[in-house]
Amino acid sequence: MKAGGSGIAKAGIGFGTALAITISWSANKSLLWAIVHGLLSWIYVIYYALVHHFK
User: Fold this and answer.
1) Which residues contact 18 (CB under 8 A, 6 or more apart)?
2) Is residue 47 packed enough to be buried (19+ CB in 10 Å), middle (13-18) or exposed (0-12)?
3) How many Å apart are CA 13 and CA 23, to the nearest integer?
4) Nearest-CA neighbor of 41 among 16, 12, 6?
């Protein structure tokens, strides 16, 4: 077992990427934007929540 909770960090990064891709695809229907937003992951998720959810 690795110290420092690296498994949890990897799971969080994976979930953030999947969430960003899902939100991006649902909003834009563009594979290119889904890839870009997947790379930005949590940054895009937080941006989307602030801009579109809390209007």
Assistant:
1) none
2) middle
3) 15
4) 16
pTM of the model: 0.76
**pLDDT of the residue at 19:** 95
Runs of H (alpha helix) within the chain: 6-28, 31-40, 42-48
Q: Terminus-to-terminus CA distance in the chain, angstroms?
A: 44
Alpha carbons 41 and 55: distance in angstroms, whole number: 21
Give the Cα separation of 19 and 10 in Å (integer): 14
For the chain, 55 residues long, the average pLDDT of each consecutive 10-residue run is 59 85 95 95 94 82
Give me the residue spans of the domains in the chain: 30-55
